[in-house]
Amino acid sequence: MTGPPTGGPVGVMAHVLFFYALLLLATGTAFRFGGGPERAVATILLAATAATWAVAIAGRGYYDRQFHGGLELGILAVDAALVVALTGVALLADRFWPLWMTAIHAFGLIGHVAKALAPDILPNVYQAAHGFSAYPGLILLIVATHWHRRRMREEGGDRSWSISWPSPTRRWPANARIG
Q1: pTM of the model
Q2: Which residues cross the membrane (predicted)?
């Protein structure tokens, strides 16, 4: 989930601080103002970040550039679990944006596939492909939370899950929405 460190120590620290600041902003906003899908994705992203951090420290492969057979298998497992969890939200949510979120993070898996198919890929290119998905996903979560708040304000309600049904006393708008 976390992007790769780049540059020298200052570049690494700036990258890490920016990522965690954006992560806290996106997940905090989702927990405070989001509906069920926004909160679920915030929880998933926090769990994936913690798992990535734990795998990186335990395996030392991610930050010390020690790869196992050309791949960082622990990070691959976390990314695969992230995409599976996001797919679950996309299937159950009454929103379109979780599909985008899933696609964005599936791009990170492409970096793993590329590294498996072409082990000569430089570690920085491999890590950049992996890290690319983190920032757009966090920005999308902020935007999706804004869409939810707008629907709540304008329509008085926002059904979160496609398996839930509105109350018989509440009539929901039938118009389609992208968020």
Answers
A1: 0.79
A2: 12-33, 40-61, 73-92, 124-144
